[in-house]
Amino acid sequence: MNSIPLLVFYVVLAIYLWFTFSIVYHFIRFGVGTTPKTLGFVFFIGSFVLFIAVVFAYGKVEWGGILQQIIGNVPKF
Amino acid sequence: MSIFTTTKNTFEHQREGERIIAVTRKHWFHIAAPMAALFLLALAPFGFYAYFTATTWYKAAPSFYWFFDTVYYLALWNFLFYRIMVYVLNTVIVTNRRVIENQQDGLFRHTIHEVELANIQDISVKTFGIDATLLGFGDIEIQTAGTEKKFSFPQLPHPKNLKETIMKAKYTLVAP
Q: Most CB within 10 Å of its CB: which of A56, B16, B94, B141?
C-alpha cells in the first residue's frame, strides 16, 4: 500500500526530468544568441528550487493515512 | 560559462564568412495572452486558499494541500518556460547571404526554411486588423525565383523596417 505513492512519485519524476532536460537542451542547442541560454539557466535554477520544495512537501505528507481515508470512502457494492 | 557570452558562430549551420544583419522573433503580442493566462493561474491558489482552509480534508491533512501547491507551481513553471522556449526559438535571421526562418512547433519539432538573397524577387508586407496596425506587426511574404515560390513569415514586429533591411542586404550582395 505504501509503495503506491512512491511508485507514482518515480514515474512523475522520470517525466519531469525528461521534460526539464528537453527544455534546457532546446534553449542551448537551438537558441540564437545568448538570450535563450540565459533563459535556459533561469528555468533550470527555478525548476531545481521548486523540485526541492516538492520533495520536502512530499516528505511531510502522511500517505498511509490519506490512502486509508480514500479507500475507506469508496462505496462497496 | 562561455555559452552565456557572444561566440563566433551565432546560429547552427552558419556558413564561413556569413554575417548576421538582423534577428527577429514574432511580436510580443503573440505570447501576451498565454503569459496573462499563466499569471492568473499562478494567482489561483491564493484565491482558493480561504476556501480550502475551511474544508474538513484540509484540517485532516494540511500537508497534502501544500504538497499539491508545490507540484502545481512546478508544473506551471515548466509550462511557462515551454511557451517561452517555443516563442524564443521561432526566429527569422537575416544574414548577408540569406534569410532563415527557424520554426519551433514544440519539443523536438523543428523546421528550417531559408531563402538565398540572390533568389529574392519581391517582398510584400501585410498588416491586417486594428491590433496589428496599432502595435506595429505584420506578415512578410518573399517571392523567389527558386522552386519554392513564396515564403511567408507571420506576425513580425516592424515588418516594413525588416523588408528594408532584407532589400538593402540583397542590393549590397548584388552590388559589385
A: B94
